[in-house]
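Lab notebook: predicted structure, single chain.

Context: the supervisor wants predicted structures on file for every construct in the current expression panel, including those that have not yet been purified. This is the next one on the list. No modifications to the sequence; it matches the entry in the shared construct table.
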Amino acid sequence: MSASEPSSSHGVAPGSPGDSAPRRERAAIAAQACETCRARKTKCDEARPRCGLCTRLGVVCNYREPQPTKKDKTLEQMDSKLDRIGGTMKDFSSQMREMTDLIRTIPGVSPGAAPTQGQPASSPATTTQSMQSEETVVPAPFGTDAHLTTPHKVLLWPALYHMLGQESASNQRDMLAIAQEGTHWFLKRETGKHPEPLSAEARLQESLASNSNPNYIPLDRQARKHLVGLTYDRMVMFAKSYFTTYHVLYPILDQGLFDVILRDVVENGFGDADYNSTIALLVFALGHMAIAGARDPPLDPSVHPNSGFRGGSLHQPPGIELFNAARRSFGFIGTQCSLENVQILTLMAIYYEGCSRHLDFWRSSVSASMSCIVLAKCEQFDMDSPRGHTYKRAFWTCNLIENWYHFELDLPRTGIREFGEQVSLPGNPRSSPEDNQVQIQYLAMIALHRLISRIHVDLHAQSHDGSPDTYRGPPTAVITGLVDMLQQWRELLPRELQWKDGPHRFNYPGLDRDGTPTQHVLFHYTKNADQPEYLMSIDISTAQLRSRYYYALFIIYRPFVYKALHYPEITTAEDRRNAGECIQASLKWPIVMYPVRDKKRLIPYGFAWTQNFLGILLILRMSLDHKTMAGIVDEFVNKQEMQETIVLLLDWFEDMQQVDGVAEWGHEVMSNLWGRQYAADEG
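Prediction complete. Output recorded below exactly as produced.
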């Protein structure tokens, strides 16, 4: 496998008319092509709103105004557009059915299947073979029933515990505390990082709204107001920013319904105890954060001048004035159980996550989930109506957020997952093409999440103390079945979401129409000055989907790394190959590469990545010193990608330690473990 990215692949290789083409034909191409195809001298298929090339590249597609011609082709163009729309709808409906069928084929996880607080678990798929697949063999003084989540179990592997304990006395104290307290020790790092709530001081000046109709009385009979500086143009700009960034990652709103909300606040102003006002303000706050998080200077240039955490400051994040206005408005309606309440709480949670205030994120999302449960029990939705589609999106977003938190930080669940069979999957074929693409990718993430839930229960839910006499090795039959399911998920992805492994896994789109890898490199190890601005957050959404896939592959094969580290004398050739698969699966996840690396305020579930990067760095460090693991790396792992991954992950901790309590602790540990000059030497 080649470790390096194609150095010349900053875009799709341009085609050009043949030298023998008639000048008249070339002139026609130049007159009708979009600006991108015109610049590349490529024949444009003239698809609207974006041509094929711009769709593949994910860039803005601009057409010049057509010049009048002698031959009127209006009807012909209309027929062509209708054919394209019909084909798009047909493709979308087919993709929806495939993704829905895929989700239903993945065995579900019963509500009682995932244990917490050291509670034993069993699964029909694992009762005969899963015992001690990846033991947490803690030295005798540290024996404990404290529950550790999958990423944190690595810390108490004997080999890694010994390595960390040798490093410093503070590490020894921390390991003792982790063994006694479990994952809750990491929660203390978060509460200590953000002991105070977000500042309430920042606010926009208000002016009484004047309506052209002197008899206008708001339905809530509250006086409406305008916010000074929040002009119509800024509202439209922030809304557009939101729907092309956070909405792609957490699709909880309907853009058509939001247009009605926008018109209301533009015409009538903002009011307290008003759902429309609160939703609009939160959308504007998130839109502001999305712009600043991608374009503004780093959070604190004096600490980390190349930081990818951008915009505002620790206590004054972008959009805080708008967020505070929304919080004041929401205070009057915060205890209601309505769909709007769910949307507001989820939008608040997303804003908190953009500030890396993970427990605030969790608290808000839990409140949203509780309201979702009440709605599932008490309100009948027409699931084919715009409101019904919006409820489905809100429900599944809450479900995903809650489960990621439970997997990584062992935070309690509300029970929303018990209604997963009752609430149908999101999907509205009547949406715009852009929104259809969001829905397909969202369904793919739901399917992958369901599979990851299965992996956690079948492989990692149990945490027994063990010994060499009782160790029986990884449950190979279970692991083979999980790998097969993961590959099935990948094979059933729509073509535009698929990709090839190896160096081509950084390309987007992953495959061309004929199934061959494209040549446009989206993800880079180093910053690419020529990187275009991608529409609909293609870079972040694609990075999340692919990184989650490799995360799943990594935790499936991880028991073989445990075996190679602790029982090398009984490690077979097949075990070695599988351990190599685990290490290779942990390398160069797109979520830490450019351009996503510079947009950390927009990365979903930042807390989850930090927990897992901690374990990956420890395993990679051990792989350099341990004789058996070093041999596995030599035989099965791309060593250049391994070195680059170490640099990328150390950079993550260096960057995130400004705002994340676990990252702050991890940065200190990793800096000592790897040497403070490692990133600089390798970078």
